[in-house]
Amino acid sequence: MSRAAISCIVPFFIVRNVPVALEFYRDRLGFEVTFQGPSDDDIFFGIVERGGAARH
């Protein structure tokens, strides 16, 4: 039996404060914030990426 290749795994973390978590990943770990929302005044989901790594 052959197995499908896994090309990417994206962890999904539940955090208390999404804007603060996004700042940490951007400012301390060098990730790029590629999504935050759904709106600027109600940010409860975010995506950060760096190289081949992403976090939701």
Can you tag this structure with a few keywords?
56 residues; alpha+beta; three-stranded antiparallel sheet; 1 helix
3D architecture notes:
It is a single chain. With 56 residues, the chain is an alpha+beta fold. It has a domain of 38 residues. Helix content is 20%, strand content 36%. A three-stranded antiparallel β-sheet has the order 1-2-3. A hairpin with a 2-residue loop joins strand 2 and strand 3. It is elongated and about 50 Å long. The mean pLDDT is 94.
Short overview:
With 56 residues, the chain is of the alpha+beta class. The chain has a domain at 18-55. Helices cover 20% and strands 36% of the residues.
What would you report as the Rg, rounded to the nearest angstrom?
14 Å
Strand content: 35-45%
Give the strand order, joined by hyphens, for the main sheet.
1-2-3
Determine the fraction of residues in helical runs and give it as a percent range.
Answer: 10-25%
Q: For the report, how would you describe the main beta sheet? A: 3 strands, antiparallel
Overall form: elongated
Q: Can you write the helix and strand succession as a string?
A: HEEE
Mean pLDDT: 94
Going by helix content, strand content and strand pairing, the class is: alpha+beta
C-alpha end-to-end distance: 32 Å
Uncertain segments are none
The number of helical elements comes to 1
The tally of beta strands, per DSSP, is 3
